[in-house]
Specification:
GO terms for molecular function: cobalt-precorrin-5B C1-methyltransferase activity. Pathway: Cofactor biosynthesis; adenosylcobalamin biosynthesis; cob(II)yrinate a,c-diamide from sirohydrochlorin (anaerobic route): step 6/10. This is Cobalt-precorrin-5B C(1)-methyltransferase. The chain is of the alpha/beta class and 369 residues long. It has two domains: 168 residues, 2-Layer Sandwich (CbiD-like); 181 residues, no CATH class. The strands form five sheets. Strands 4-5-6-9-7 form a five-stranded mixed beta sheet. Helix 1 packs parallel to helix 2, helix 9 crosses helix 13 and helix 10 runs antiparallel to helix 11.
Length: 369
C-alpha cells in the first residue's frame, strides 16, 4: 500500500509460469486430465494458484500454457504466454528452452554457456512440479515463450550475451510491484560476467549514453557495466569480488553527485549538483559572480559554458578527482577508482589520473595524460 492508500497487486514470475505450465502438461500426458488451474509450491514456502490458458494433447507429448501476470509491476514480459511441452523419454528429467527462450553465450552467469537461459530456481520449480506428477519417469520438458525474441531486446539479455529470447527467471516465484531491489539485482550479473571474461578493471556507467560513450572511446564492451542510479550498490558489489579497478564514466550531472557523496543518483532522492560545482569553483578561486551564476543554473550542463567562459574549466578535473576519492572510500578502498565525465555533446570535460591509468589499461583511444 502506498501513501495514497493504493494496494499494489503482486504477480508471478516467468519461472512460476513455466512450472505451472509444465505441471499441467505432465498431468495431461500421464492421466489425460485437462485442467484450467494448477497449484505450485513457492521456493520460500507457500503455494501459488495459476490459471492454465490452454492444454494441447498430442501423440506422445502434451503442451500447456500459462500467461504471465506481473501484477502492477512494469515488467516487459507481462502478458507473455509461457508454454511447456512434456514428453516421456529416457531415464532422466531434461529441461531445456524452445522458441523465445534465450541461450547463454558468455560465461559468468548462473547458467553455463550453451544452455537455455532457465535460471536455477525456476529449473528446480519445474522439476519439483513435474516430478510430483510423473514420479521418477524420464521426461523431456521444453519451455517456450513465443514472442520472447522481440521482448528480449528490451531487457539486459543482449548485453549479457543471452541470445534468441528472454530468460526464465525468479527466485521467489512472486513479482512484487515496482521492486527497486529486483531491478538492482538484475544489474549485478554484468559484474560476474566481466570477471569471468578476464576483466578485473571495470567501467561503471549510469546508462545507455554512457555505454555509447565508452564504446566510442574504445573501451571493451565486456568490461562496461550499467549501474542505472545504483552507483553505490554496484560499487559495493564490486568490493565483494576480485575487482582491481573501477572507472566511473558518465555525464557530469550524475558524477557530480558522486563527488558530493551521493551514491543513489535518482534526482528526487538527493541532489546538490549546483552546490557541489559552486563549492569546487570557489575552492579554485572563482569570483562571487561566477559562483552566483552556478547557483542559479537550471541544469548542471550550464556549468560547462559558465566555467569555460570564465577560465575555470579545470574545476571539472577537481570534481572527477573528488568523485574517485568518495567512491574509493565508499568501497572500503578495495580497488583503484578513476572518474571521467562528459557533457551532453559528448565532449570529455573532466577526468583524473586514475581515469587515465585505468583507461590505458583497458585500451581506450583517448589522448589524455
Amino acid at each position: 500500500m502506498d501513501k495514497d492508500n493504493r494496494v499494489w497487486r503482486t504477480g508471478y514470475t516467468t519461472g512460476s509460469c513455466a512450472a505451472g505450465a509444465a505441471k499441467a502438461a505432465a498431468l495431461a500426458l500421464l492421466t489425460g486430465e485437462v485442467v484450467s488451474q494448477v497449484t505450485i509450491a513457492l521456493p520460500a514456502g507457500g503455494q501459488l494458484n495459476l490459471n492454465v490458458a490452454w492444454v494441447e494433447k498430442n501423440e506422445g507429448s502434451c503442451r500447456a500454457a500459462v500467461v504471465k501476470d506481473a501484477g502492477d509491476d512494469p515488467d516487459v514480459t507481462h502478458g507473455l504466454t509461457i508454454v511447456a511441452e512434456v514428453c516421456l523419454e529416457g531415464s532422466a528429467l531434461v529441461i531445456t528452452g524452445g522458441q523465445g527462450v534465450g541461450t547463454v553465450t558468455k560465461p559468468g552467469l548462473a547458467v553455463p554457456v550453451g544452455e537455455s537461459a532457465i535460471n536455477p530456481v525456476p529449473r528446480q520449480m519445474i522439476e519439483r512440479e513435474v516430478r510430483e506428477i510423473l514420479g521418477q519417469r524420464g521426461a523431456r520438458v521444453v519451455i517456450s515463450a513465443p514472442g520472447g525474441e522481440v521482448l528480449a531486446q528490451r531487457t539486459m539479455n543482449p548485453r549479457l550475451g543471452i541470445l534468441g529470447g528472454i530468460s526464465i527467471l525468479g527466485t521467489s516465484g512472486i513479482v512484487r510491484p515496482m521492486s527497486e531491489e529486483a531491478y538492482r539485482r538484475s544489474l549485478v550479473p554484468q559484474i560476474d560476467q566481466a570477471l569471468a571474461l578476464g576483466y578485473q578493471a571495470l567501467v561503471l556507467t549510469p546508462g545507455h549514453l554512457g555505454v555509447k560513450k565508452a564504446l566510442q572511446l574504445g573501451l571493451p564492451q565486456e568490461a562496461i557495466i550499467e549501474t542505472s542510479n545504483f552507483i553505490g550498490s554496484m560499487l559495493e558489489e564490486c568490493a565483494q569480488r576480485p575487482v582491481e579497478a573501477v572507472l566511473l564514466l558518465g555525464h557530469l550531472g550524475k558524477l557530480v553527485k558522486v563527488a558530493a557523496g551521493i551514491f543513489h543518483t535518482l534526482g528526487k532522492l538527493a541532489d546538490g549538483r549546483r552546490e557541489t560545482i559552486a563549492a569546487h569553483a570557489a575552492l579554485a578561486g572563482a569570483p562571487r559572480e561566477v559562483i552566483r551564476q552556478l547557483m542559479n543554473m537550471n541544469t548542471s550542463e550550464e556549468a560547462v559554458e559558465i566555467l569555460g567562459k570564465t577560465g575555470y574549466h579545470s574545476v571539472f578535473h577537481h570534481l572527477a578527482a573528488a568523485a574517485s576519492q568518495r567512491a574509493a572510500a565508499y568501497s572500503g578502498d578495495k580497488f583503484m577508482v578513476g572518474t571521467l565525465m562528459y557533457a551532453l555533446n559528448g565532449d570529455v570535460v573532466g577526468y583524473d589520473q586514475g581515469a587515465c591509468q585505468i583507461g590505458r589499461k583497458l585500451g581506450w583511444q583517448l589522448p589524455l595524460r
